[in-house]
C-alpha cells in the first residue's frame, strides 16, 4: 500500500524537528498540498448558486412587467391610436362634479340633560357650582340654554324642570316644550314659569329683576299673586333684608356642615355670605377655609388655586400663610 504523501511529510517533519530550515520547507509543502482550489470550496459554490437564481428571477419579472393586465387577467400590450399616446378604451372623465354630502347635525331629544363642561355654569346633581370670572353659555335641561351675563352666577338644579338662581344674573333661552311641560326658574322666593321664551333674571342683595325679551312668562310673587308678562315687560321686586350673620353663628354653621361631611354645602355657604362679612379676620379665615375645601374635599384645584392666589395677595403675613404656601405647592398652582 502506497503511503500517503501527507503522512510521509509529517513523519519527516517529526524526525527533523530540530532543523529550522527543514521546518520551513516542510511547512511550505504542507500549505501547498492542503490548499483547495477556490472554485471547489463549498461556501463559495453556494453563494454563486444563489446569485445565479436571483438573476434568473429578476429577469423573469422584468420581462413580464412590460405587458398590461386586462380585466380578464391576460397580459397583452395596450393598443394605442396612431398619433396619440392615450390608450384605446380608456374611460372618459365625467364633467359632473359630485356635490358634497351635507353634514347631519344630531338634535338632542327633549328631556335629555345637556350640560356643557366648558360653560361658565356646571350643574352636578343638586349641588350648586359656580366658575367665577367666566362668561359664556351652558346647556341645562330640556333644551334650556343659559347665557351668563355677569362675572359669576350660582344656579342650582332642582328636579328635571326647575332651576334655582342663588346669585348673579343669567339669561335663559328656552326652546318650545311639549304640551303639558313647563320650565321654572325660582329666585328670592319668586317663581317664573315658561313654555318657550327668552328672558333675563338678575338677583342682587337688594333686588330681583326679571326682563322678558320674547314669548310669555308667568311671574308669581312670594305672596302667591301672579303676573302674566309680555315681551319688553320688566318686573322689579325689592328683597327683604336678610338678618346679618354673626361671626359666632357663621363659625357654628360652618363647623356643623363640615362635621357632617357636607363640604360642598359648606363651600356654597361661605361663598354666599363672604361678600356680607365685615370683619377682616373672619373674611380672611373664611377665604382660606373655602380654598382648602375646594382643594382637599372637592378636588377643584383650579378654583382652590384662584382662591389661594387671592388670599396670598390680600393677606401675605397672616397666621395661615405658611399653610397656604404648602397648599399652593401641593396643588401645583402657578
N-C termini distance: 101 Å
Shape summary: elongated
Architecture (CATH level 2) name of the domain at 137-238:
Sandwich
- DSSP strand content: 15-25%
Main beta sheet strand tally, sense and closure: 11 strands, mixed
The DSSP helix count reads 8
* Broad CATH class of the domain at 137-238: Mainly Beta
User: pLDDT below 50 for ≥5 consecutive residues: which ranges?
Assistant: 66-127
The SSE string, one letter per element, is: HHHEEEEEEEEEEEEEHHHHH
Number of strands: 13
Write down the Rg.
46 Å
Q: What structural category characterises the helix and strand content?
A: alpha+beta
Mean of pLDDT? 71
Helix content: 25-40%
CATH fold label of the domain at 137-238:
Jelly Rolls
Q: Would you summarize the structure shown here?
A:
This protein is about 35% helix and about 20% strand.
Detailed description of the structure:
This protein is α+β, with helices and mostly antiparallel strands and 334 residues long. Among the domains are: 1-31, no CATH class; 137-238, Jelly Rolls, CATH 2.60.120; 247-330, Tetratricopeptide repeat domain (Serine Threonine Protein Phosphatase 5, Tetratricopeptide repeat), CATH 1.25.40.10. The protein is 34% helix and 20% strand. The protein is built from 8 helices and 13 strands. The protein has helices at 5-15, 20-34, 42-64, 247-259, 263-273, 280-296, 301-314, 321-330; strands at 68-69, 75-76, 137-139, 144-148, 154-158, 162-174, 183-187, 190-194, 198-203, 207-214, 217-220, 226-229, 234-238. Strands 3, 4, 5, 6, 7, 8, 9, 10, 11, 12 and 13 form an 11-stranded mixed beta sheet that branches. A two-stranded antiparallel sheet has the order 1-2. A hairpin with a 5-residue loop joins strand 1 and strand 2. Helix 7 (301-314) runs antiparallel to helix 8 (321-330). The N and C termini lie far apart (101 Å). Residues 66-127 have low confidence and may be disordered.
Amino acid at each position: 500500500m502506497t503511503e500517503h504523501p501527507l503522512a510521509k511529510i509529517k513523519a519527516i517533519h517529526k524526525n527533523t524537528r530540530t532543523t529550522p530550515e527543514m521546518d520551513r520547507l516542510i511547512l511550505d509543502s504542507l500549505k501547498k498540498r492542503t490548499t483547495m482550489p477556490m472554485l471547489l470550496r463549498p461556501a463559495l459554490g453556494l453563494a454563486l448558486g444563489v446569485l445565479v437564481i436571483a438573476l434568473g428571477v429578476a429577469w423573469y419579472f422584468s420581462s413580464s412587467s412590460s405587458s398590461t393586465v386586462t380585466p380578464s387577467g391576460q397580459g397583452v400590450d395596450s393598443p394605442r391610436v396612431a398619433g396619440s399616446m392615450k390608450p384605446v378604451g380608456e374611460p372618459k372623465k365625467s364633467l359632473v362634479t359630485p356635490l358634497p354630502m351635507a353634514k347631519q347635525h344630531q338634535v338632542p331629544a327633549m328631556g335629555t340633560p345637556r350640560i356643557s363642561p366648558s360653560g361658565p355654569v356646571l350643574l352636578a346633581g343638586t349641588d350648586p357650582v359656580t366658575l367665577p370670572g367666566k362668561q359664556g353659555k351652558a346647556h341645562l335641561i330640556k333644551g334650556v340654554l343659559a347665557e351668563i351675563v355677569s362675572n359669576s352666577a350660582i344656579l342650582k338644579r332642582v328636579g328635571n324642570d326647575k332651576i334655582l338662581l342663588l346669585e348673579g344674573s343669567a339669561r335663559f333661552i328656552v326652546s318650545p316644550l311639549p304640551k303639558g311641560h313647563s320650565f321654572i326658574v325660582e329666585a328670592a322666593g319668586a317663581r317664573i314659569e315658561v313654555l318657550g321664551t327668552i328672558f333675563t333674571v338678575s338677583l342682587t342683595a337688594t333686588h330681583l329683576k326679571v326682563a322678558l325679551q320674547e314669548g310669555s312668562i308667568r311671574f308669581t310673587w312670594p305672596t302667591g299673586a301672579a303676573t302674566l308678562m309680555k315681551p319688553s315687560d320688566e318686573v322689579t321686586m325689592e328683597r327683604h333684608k336678610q338678618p346679618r350673620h354673626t361671626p359666632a353663628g357663621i363659625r357654628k354653621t360652618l363647623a356643623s356642615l363640615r362635621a357632617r361631611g357636607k363640604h360642598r354645602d359648606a363651600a356654597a355657604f361661605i361663598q354666599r355670605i363672604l361678600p356680607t362679612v365685615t370683619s377682616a379676620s373672619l373674611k380672611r379665615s373664611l377665604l382660606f377655609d373655602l380654598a382648602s375645601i375646594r382643594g382637599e374635599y372637592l378636588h377643584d384645584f383650579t378654583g382652590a388655586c384662584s382662591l389661594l392666589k387671592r388670599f396670598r395677595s390680600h393677606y401675605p403675613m397672616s397666621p395661615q400663610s405658611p399653610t397656604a404656601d404648602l397648599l399652593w405647592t401641593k396643588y401645583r398652582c402657578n
